[in-house]
Amino acid sequence: MSTQLPKIPLVFLGLGLYRAWIEIVYVGTWIPFPTLPIAGQDIFDGAMVLVLLACALLHRCVTPLFRKSMLLWAAAGAVSLGTIVNFLTLVFPAAAPLTALPSAITCGFGIALLILIWSELYACLSPYQVAVYYAASILAGAAVILICRGFILPYTGTAATLLPVASMACVLRSFSQVAPEDLPLKQATRHPLPWTPIALMSLYAFAYGLRENELTSVMGPMSSIGVIAASSIVLIGITRFRDKFDLDVMQRIALPSMVCSLVFVSAYNLVGTLFANICASLSYTAFSILIFCILCDLSRRFGFSAIMLFGLERGIRAIFSLLGRLVDNVVISIGGHSVLSDLVVAGAVAVLVIAFALILWRAPTQKEYWSVPRINPSGSNLSATSEIDDSAERLAIACSLIRRQYELTPREEDVLSLLVQGKSIAEVAQNLVIAKGTAKVHVRHIYEKLSIHTREELKTLVFEQEVR
Questions:
Q1: Rounded distance, CA 302 to CA 454, Å?
Q2: What are the residues facing 178 on neighbouring strands?
Q3: pLDDT (tens digit per residue) in 49-105
């Protein structure tokens, strides 16, 4: 088993820069901005949600977002401008009432577009790259935050102002390293909306919101021990076990960790809040990594617009996180941590467990959308290639070439690969977690596009590509 850290292009870690900015300036910040009591995290989140949901609804007009460079640079500039304004209020606090609201709205608008453009980029990549780069970006963002915590305010302000622009430069540079055929296009799909992962992530966001007030008072939401632990598990798992690592382990970590976090809210006198905070951030980060990988894979395989998927997911997630914070604030205002708060926590745990079960096991039409992508270290959507001798990998390359030549969809490529391996229609359906009728439709479309009629002709065509 190899223990070498996978090679990660530095520009792909720019996602961590906007995460670092969020904690430094708005969510969990340690800086006493005079603007925050006037227009803080809730206003910032509200503006971000509106932009995310608007882009999701208008995704046919927005996609591909990376082509709209002027809009993107304007968004990065808006965040930097809002950052400067916030830091200036430390020197001129009398200006806070005038600048707080426009600054929060401007920053929310810009960060929403940064989130979407990075999501669009990652949806171009293989599951292996998504998992490795995303986990590494989370660690990079945490490192930037910890470094900035040691700066004096002028240096922190300078760093925070540059972070959005640097993040935007990284993401636009990263697109140049993606193979041309994998760049995002205007996509249209007739598949139903994959609401299962979005609903589950919202559930975790609500539970996390119940803990967020305590969490941000002790450690940052983007740089806590739980965040670092969750992303480290992914990197160490992939590094140590390569293609044997199963991303589904993040789901098995997330649920018990969140339940432990909620239970220990009312038991803080016994074990302290630190354990509950670590569990909450570990759970939320682990599940968000899993959902991010699933949505990127759905975009690649089914042709969903990444702008639509992530606009909905991040927007709805932010709404439920806000609801969790509001519930927690109401409970504290009524009676603090008392019998009432214990009941709320117990109810939240019950809702979490029951809803988790119902969503997964009572939604048969959504089963194919809850398919955790398999981590394959040989998979790469970057322009650079390497010599590969393994027969399975040669088959994957041949199928990829056929997909590009005959304009197959990513899902049809998956079906093609299984057919060449000798799988029956039933086995194809079982492997891809789709209905047997859906598998038959995919096979018919493949045969039509390739102008063939038998499985032998299909194998011959693939073999010819392998020989080349």
A1: 25
A2: 382
A3: 999 999 999 998 998 899 999 999 999 999 999 999 999 999 999 999 999 999 999
Cα separation of 206 and 204, whole Å?
5
HEC secondary structure over 244-311: HCCCCHHHHHHHHHHHHHHHCCCCHHHHCHHHHHHHHHHHHHHHHHHHHHHHHHHHHHHCCCHHHHHH
Instruction: Evaluate whether 75 touches 18 at the Cβ level (below 8 Å).
Output: no
Helix (H, G, I), strand (E, B) or coil at 176: coil
What value, to the nearest 5°, has the Cα angle with vertex 284 and ends 137 and 18? 35
Would you say 383 and 179 are in contact if contact means Cβ atoms under 8 Å apart? yes
- Dihedral sign, CA of 311, 317, 320, 326? negative
Closest CA to 99 of 464, 90, 168: 90
* CA end-to-end distance (rounded Å), the chain: 31
- Residue 174's nearest CA partner among 19, 397, 383 is 383
Q: Is the pTM of the predicted complex or chain greater than 0.85? A: no
Contacts of 367 (CB under 8 A, 6+ apart): 433
297 contacts 127 by C-beta, under 8 angstroms: yes
In 3D, which of 211, 463, 186 has the Cα closest to residue 332?
211
